[in-house]
Each structure stands twice: as structure tokens, then as C-alpha cells.
Amino acid sequence: MCRIAGIISKKLNDKETSAAIKRMCNAMRKGGPDGEGYLLLPELNLAFGHRRLSLIDLSENGKQPMPYQNQLWITFNGEIYNYPELKVDLIAKGFSFNNETDTEVILAGYQAYGTSFFKELKGMFAFALLDQHTKQTFLVRDGLGIKPLYYALNDGQLCFASEVKAFTAFNSNWKENTDWPIYFLSFGFIPEPYTTLEGVHNLPKGHFLTWDHQKQHATLQKFADNYPFPKEVELQIAQQEIKTKLDQSVKRHLIADAPIGVFLSGGIDSSLLSIIASEQTQQVINTLSINFNEPEFSEQKYQEIIAKQINSKHIRYTVTANDFEQHIDQIFNDMDQPSNDGVNSWFVNKVAKENGLKAVLSGIGADELFGGYPSFKRHPLIKKLKKAPRFLLKSAKYLPSDKLKRISFLAYQNPIGEYLFLRGFYTPNVVSKLLKVPEKKIEQLLNNYPLDKEVEQLSAEDRISWFETNVYMQNQLLKDTDYMSMAHGIEVRVPFLDQDLVAKTLALPKEARFNEQPKSILIKAYQNILPEAIWNRPKKGFTFPFQHWFTTYKPMLNEEHYKKNAQALALLKQFKNHQLHWSKLFAVYQVFHHAKKA
Q: Residues that bind L-glutamine, according to the entry (predicted)?
């Protein structure tokens, strides 16, 4: 796991290019503490940069940018979990290897099969690959978008990086995307493809961008499979298939030449990963748990059940309100973009780093794929509400309750309205008052938000799952986990998002995936080893006591930070009167104060 950057530009001379690529990499140095490397090719006006976090082949042989056969170069961020199998095939075809990395397998695989090889890669990855023979550079991002890759095309110039902050390191005068606060206050995050910077976008997941050095032109192409059609299968067979795929996934995700652990929150997902990991290796598993002094947020009882069952080396840490206040400024600095999430991930990874770990397994993806969120029960309500006249739905924005206000999103022609009904933050009339932007412009931006057409083919729980996976998980959980883990030089791996497991899951019929009991297929598949105490209890997500902690966080409560905006001050008052969720005021605080300081 690393940080990558690149510049292709005729506008800069060699000295300027060299200095710029180093600035970009230095801005991301926390994510690659184990080394750095650069490639400068003046004849192609190209520079690649790399900051290394080494987990496989820790020797200098794994240094990047990495060449292959005097023709190819790569700068790579991620892990390819099926690289041993791919390597066997390539060796049989006569390809030779100089190291034990998965990076070199990508190079040899491209040499053998061209861009069609990208589809064969199973893991989390974002890389740039230069083919000097064809004079093409490819930017590639994994099919589930686990790893970020941002790029900007401008007047025959291409820049790319693992973090948005690298672009302002490249050019300190890079223009701000003035629409980002609208998206942020509407969604609670800045959704792909948008960022805080003008012209800087996420490379779509499962796509590769081809830059033709001769034509100075870029094209975008999809390589990942589309959403599969469900296939009929008996329930017991489905359970066994999911178990087989998850077992294989965890085994793959344990491949490392550096210490690795499992984040154990005490819920179904992390408990399963911990148990499976203990079965897939002869070594003692490291489990890592966060707890709180506030008993209603503590999951320690359930964490101890699993740690004792698998006899893990269990690392415990209690995060206090004092810890939060002590580190909040550093957490802000480590955010790549404004976020209402990620504080929990920052602390988990801090503890992992302090205990000598290099990688941690996380349960991200299970709720989204197997119906673990309350939103999965709301599809009948959406269907019923959408039958109401549009003018009536629109008028819901005037209702006093925030939850009822969100009904107005269902008037949208764009399916994104359904997501915003489920998880949106502020409705356009409120955002308009906060930002002094015409409500009509906000409505237009949201109505025109780009969504993959495949969601329109889905219904009921499948549709909710698509939203949770492709909007919420993609833009909130994965993004925040990436930069908060990289801030500590830790790699977070997500076995539930293994390509084979996801493909198998999405091909299941609804009745196999979704049930009255959330994640019932996982529970039944592992009923012999997953304790009933873990799954037979109300769901409680891994959350911090922020509602308590923010009541004493003076900067957010300071009226001066809201610049005498009547709507912002009204929201501040609601929070102080315990009538507003902390995350909603936190979003306003960032837009009005903290993000403006950055």
C-alpha cells in the first residue's frame, strides 16, 4: 500500500517537473513512510512518483517506480491478492521475474495480455503504467473503488495522485470547486466524481484512462463487469458458496511479509473475520479493539468473547473525550477532504501503528452486501411515498422535522433522490440559506448528479444495496478509511469486498441475500463457529460518543465561526438544545470555519 503521483506536461521544464513531482509525493508522505522513488522521462514529458508502504517483499527489490523489460514502468498503490496464481500462469508462458512483489506481476501480465489483463486482477489497486513502446500511459482503478485515484486533464496536461492535497502541492493556486459545499451539506460527503478542487476528479472505479503521448489525448474505458443477473440457487448451497468464497478471501487478505491484525469491534462482520483468520493461519491472530468510558457505546463484552474463543493477541484501547479534543486538530489535518466520518478510523489506525502492525482487516462491505442497515427495511416506504403527487413530495421540505424534510428528495427524477431520502443531510432550501446560493441551482446540481444506469434496473433490497455500496460506502467509508489509515502508515484490507465474493453475492436471488434477520446468510453459513451472543442481539454500529463529546468542543460551539448566518446559528442552537445530530452541525462547522482555514 502506497501513495502515487504523476505529471505529464509540456508546459514544465525538466527542473520544474522534478520539483513538482517531489512536492506532490511529500504532501502524501505519511501514506508511504518506507521509501520514495521517482521516474523522469523528459522525452515523454513524464514524471512518476511513489511513496512506499511495504508489506510484500520488503527488500529494495520492491522499490517503485518499477521497470520491466526496458519497456514498461509502473507506480502502484494497492494489493493484488491473486498474484501468486497469475504469476504461475505467466511463468508457464515464459515470463521471468526479478522479485517477489505483486507489482511485477502486473507488469508481466500487461506485457502478456495488454489491457485485458486489468480484469484479471483481484484486489484493491490504483496504478499508472507506462508503455514506452506504444507511447501510452494507463491510469487504472480497481472494480470496487477501494483505492482512490484522482486526476486532472487541462490543456494537454495530465496530473494524477492518490490524494487531492497533492494537486495543491503541485500548484498552490489551484482553483477551488465552488460547488463542493453544496454537495457536502447535501450528502454529508463530497461524492465522486467531484472533489474540493476544480477539474480534479476521481477516476471511475473499474475503468482505465489511456493517455496517448503522441496525440496528447485521453480516453476512458470500463474493464469491470456490470451488475450480474441473479441466478436461482438452493439456500443451503448459497450459504456454502458464500462461506467458501469468504474463507478464500480472508486467506488471500492475510498474505503479507509484515505484521497484520483484525479490527474487532464485536459485531458480526469483524467477529467473523477474526474467527476465519484464526482458522486460515497457524499464527496467533492480532485483534484490535476500541472502547469508551461511556458504557452505552462499549462493545467490550462481545469483543472479549471472540478474542477468548480464538485465543488472539488482543489489543485494547479506550478512547476518551480528552483523546478526542487532544487529537482533533491533527485529525483535521489528516483529512484529505472535508468529512463527517473517519475519526473512528483515525484512532483505530493510530492504535494499530503504536502496536507494530502494518495492516488491519476491516468488515467494510458486509452491511452493504447482506442487508445490515436499517435502510433495507425502507424500500416499501419509498415505493409507497413515490406514488404521491410530485408537488406534494416537494412541499415536504417545509416540514419541521429533518427526517420528514427529506421526503422532498423523492420528487427528483434522478434516483439519487432515493438515496438522499435515506441518508441525505440538508434539503436544498436549508443549504440555500446556509450558503446564500439560489435553491434552484442546488436542485439542478442534485437532479443532474451522475449515476450508473444499472441502478434503474434494480428494485427493492437490491436497489438499496446498490445505493449503500456505490454511494455511501464508496464516498464515505472507503474514502475516509483510506486517508485515515494512510495517515498512520497502515493498510486497511477489506475481505468482504473481494471480487469473487462480491460477484457470487450479487448473483444470489433476493431471498438468499436478504431476510428479516440482517445478514442471515452469513450467520447460517457460520453458525457452528459464530457465537449466538454475537448475532442474536440488536445491531449497534461501531460509533463514538460524539453526541456527548461535541457538547464540550468549544470551537464548534463558537458563534463567531458561523459568520452571523441566521440559518447556521439556528442549527447551532438546535444542537445545544439536543435537537440536532452532531454530524449535521459538524458539517456546517467545517464549511463555515475549518475548511476555510485549510
A: 102
CA distance 543 to 477: 13
Strand order from edge to edge, sheet including 72-80: 66-68, 72-80, 123-131, 136-141, 207-212, 217-222
**Separation between Cα atoms, residue 464 and residue 455, nearest integer Å:** 9
276 is in an annotated binding site: no
Using CA atoms, how far apart are residues 50 and 28, in angstroms rounded to an integer?
9
Contact 266, 306 (CB under 8 A): yes
| Residues identified as active-site | 2
Q: pLDDT by residue (tens digit) across 217-271?
A: 999 999 998 888 888 899 999 999 999 999 999 999 998 877 899 999 999 999 9
d(CA 302, CA 50): 41
Domains and CATH numbers, the chain: 2-164+200-222 (3.60.20.10), 235-371+465-541 (3.40.50.620), 545-598 (no CATH)
The predicted-structure confidence for 367-387, as pLDDT tens digits, reads as follows: 999 999 999 999 999 999 999
N- to C-terminal Cα distance for the chain?
26
pLDDT in tens, 177-207: 999 999 999 999 999 999 999 999 999 999 9
- Is residue 290 part of an annotated ligand binding site? yes
Cell numbers describing residue 213: 503521448
Whether the predicted pLDDT of 598 surpasses 50: no
User: Is residue 4 a known part of a binding site?
Assistant: no
- Nine-digit cell string for 542: 461501531
Q: Whole-model pTM above 0.85?
A: yes
Find out whether 7 is annotated in a ligand binding site: no
Which among 505, 506, 548 has a CA at the least distance from the CA of 525? 505
> Which residue, chain included where needed, has cell 512518483?
49
One-letter amino acid for residue 91 of the chain: I
Answer positive or negative: Cα dihedral of 262, 264, 269, 273.
positive
Amino acid at 159: C
